[in-house]
What does this fold into?
Amino acid sequence: MTHFTANSPHARDIASVLHPQTNARKHRETGPTIMTHAEGIFVHDDAGNAFLDAGAGLWCASLGYSNERLAKVAYEAMKTLGYYQIFRHASHGPAIDLSEKLLSIAPVPMSKVLLQCSGSEANDSAVKLVWYHWHAQGKPEKRKIISRRGSYHGSTCVAISLTAKPEYQTGFGLPFDGFLYTDCPDYYRTALPGETEEDFSQRLADKLEALILAEGPETVAAFWCDPVQGGAGALPPPRDYFQKIQAVLRKYDILMVADEVICGFGRTGHMWGCQAYGMEPDMISCAKALSAAMQPISAVLLNERIYQSVLQQSDKYGAFIHGYTYAGHPVAASVALETLKIYEEIGMIGHVRSVEPVFLRELGALRDHPLVGDFTGIGLIGGLELVRDKATRENWPAEIGLGARVDAHARRNGLILRIVGNRIAFSPPLIITADEIRELARRLRATLNAVHHEVSAL
It folds into this structure.
């Protein structure tokens, strides 16, 4: 067991903090990594180590880890109106301005914006709106929701039920009934021999239709999807996937909800991931880069069809009974609005597109490494598939702990990675330069070389 002095931040953390997605028993022995400050895409710990963060924190630090302009906006907003709620007909300028801005840049026509505090809350709220809509239409039995295996959509009880990753549900008595899962569109892992991407997409659309028919189309309310599947390790869809999926949804009048929490605001080289893949959702959830992670804020964008149902329910019940204390917080909304202005001023979308070829080329070049089976990506998001055998695509056995080994060696090389199963997911801050991408790839190759040498000796 590692020993810490009684008053060190490490010891105080162990004594007081319960960490999300952390092995509580192991944490008592190892303690935390204490981050102290940041510059651009680099974060520094209390031991003086600097790390290039290839994941932008939790996919979200789009402008890096410090921004004086946003700090000033937050300060001024806090002085002017440090808090007010948007319940019961109350409002304020930042909430109005941000909502108007989001509607003006939406990938498809949207009618209203529901401001929330996190991506999980946004997806949770969107589920309620789906159910609210079908109740308004006199179809309360249309309640089941389909998401995709390997997906992650949040940590509330409902959002984790959308999340088709059993390890996130174990021990909580979840998922709730009525949440269904269809295939993960992982062409590399699950395509049949000789199957083209288009044929693979059609097979998955056919399987979705079979699931809907087995459940009864009259009971299926919505389909949840992120444009690039973050929970599956930053997995882009195969060709024609969303076109074929949307055809099935329209056939049975099933709503599509696009989870843009990771992909929104430039990550794919488009303002929205929906634009990259021709998606036409009924609702959009967004967060993370909305405020460049500088403030906790999210939003649900809903189309006119859903809004008309809200109006009908208000006629029936008197009010839309839903909300969070800090939803539409004036400080968070001010920072988010300024973040969107910064994206426009610096040409963030153009920047992502300009460095995308370097990103795809430098990380794609690692396909020649003995540990790497494939790399797929778009914009500044992508995933590297780790394998034991390139020919058979065999995985390393769990007892080898490949992911933990990669993480440990990456830290020694000054690199923070996000490892999801057999994939390394990349989503660096959107401000990353071409030279920094090359440095990322250099550190990654050194990491993989060290891991390969280590596991080859086992």
Observations:
- The CA atoms of residues 22 and 242 lie 34 Å apart.
- The mean pLDDT is 97.
- The two ends are 25 Å apart (CA to CA).
- The chain has 16 helices and 15 strands.
